[in-house]
């Protein structure tokens, strides 16, 4: 990976255009191309061995675009041409760290924010300081623990939580009137059955069921008879 405006090396090999072997002892030259414009190179070229050379580019040799073409050649050499894609340069350690060994805030744009003491408002309503976080916590100190809720037999600890008995529930249901529920009773509900038993009369082919005020008609239940059938005249002993 290569970076923009950063000194770095480019390694390349020159081939002898007659023998096909690595060209040694050459004096290579080169240039870089940005778009369609060639530019000279500033860094020097050093021979390594067996026809390999290294171009020690300075920062300016990698300036000018995201992609730069590089060309190297020499007498009796097959020219070398390639394109490098350049990334944005990374900050160096000397740029990140100031003289005291701390972060260089001119590079990082950091500050000395301390979330423990410095509140930060978000849309004017939320802060991140520790005092606000503590104040917003739910108080769970009074909640019973599992050990407190469950007794030794695995059942609910009635000294902590008291549930109504079945007889209490039964009595509460049986003594509950339907006066305040009449408007919401379905025709096949228990409440309508009770109204039919105590607040209804038959007339013609219908049973008229009234609400507890004996005035408001709750529903009408159609009835039918069978010719010649014996009517029921009594229920019970």
Number of domain modules: 3
Contiguous low-pLDDT stretches (5 residues minimum) are none
Write out the strand line-up for the largest beta sheet, numbering strands in chain order.
1-10-8-4-5
Kindly report the average pLDDT value. Answer: 80
Instruction: Examine the coordinates and then state which fold CATH places here, giving the name of the CATH topology of the largest domain.
Output: Immunoglobulin-like
Specify the overall morphology: elongated
Radius of gyration: 48 Å
Characteristics of this structure?
single chain, alpha+beta, Immunoglobulin-like, 3 domains, three-stranded antiparallel beta sheet, 16% helix
Would you spell out the secondary-structure blueprint of this structure?
Layout: E1 2-3, E2 8-13, E3 15-16, E4 29-34, E5 37-40, E6 44-49, E7 52-57, E8 67-73, E9 77-78, E10 80-87, H1 93-96, H2 105-108, H3 130-136, H4 146-149, H5 166-174, H6 190-198, E11 200-203, E12 206-210, E13 217-222
Parallel strand pairs: 1-10
Antiparallel strand pairs: 2-7, 3-9, 4-5, 4-8, 6-7, 8-10, 11-12, 12-13
């Amino acid at each position: 990976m290569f970076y923009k405006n950063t000194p770095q090396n480019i390694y390349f090999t020159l081939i002898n255009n007659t023998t096909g072997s690595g060209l040694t002892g050459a004096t290579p030259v080169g240039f870089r191309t940005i778009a369609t414009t060639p530019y000279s190179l500033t860094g020097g070229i050093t021979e390594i061995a067996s026809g390999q050379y290294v171009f020690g580019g300075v920062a300016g040799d990698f300036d000018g675009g995201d992609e730069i073409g590089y060309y190297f050649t020499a007498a009796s050499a097959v020219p070398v041409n390639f394109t490098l894609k350049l990334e944005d340069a990374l900050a160096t350690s000397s740029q990140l760290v100031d003289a005291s060994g701390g972060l260089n805030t001119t590079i990082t744009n950091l500050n000395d924010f301390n979330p423990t003491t410095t509140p930060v408002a978000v849309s004017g309503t939320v802060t991140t300081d520790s005092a606000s976080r503590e104040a917003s916590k739910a108080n769970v100190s009074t909640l019973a623990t599992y050990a407190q809720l469950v007794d030794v037999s695995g059942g609910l600890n009635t000294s902590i939580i008291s549930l109504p008995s079945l007889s209490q529930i039964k009595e509460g249901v049986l003594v509950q009137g339907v006066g305040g529920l009449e408007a919401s009773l379905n025709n096949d509900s228990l409440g309508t059955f009770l109204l039919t038993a105590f607040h209804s009369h038959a007339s013609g082919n219908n049973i008229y069921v009234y609400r507890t005020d004996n005035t408001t008609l709750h529903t009408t239940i159609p009835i039918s008879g069978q010719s010649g059938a014996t009517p029921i005249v009594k229920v019970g002993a």
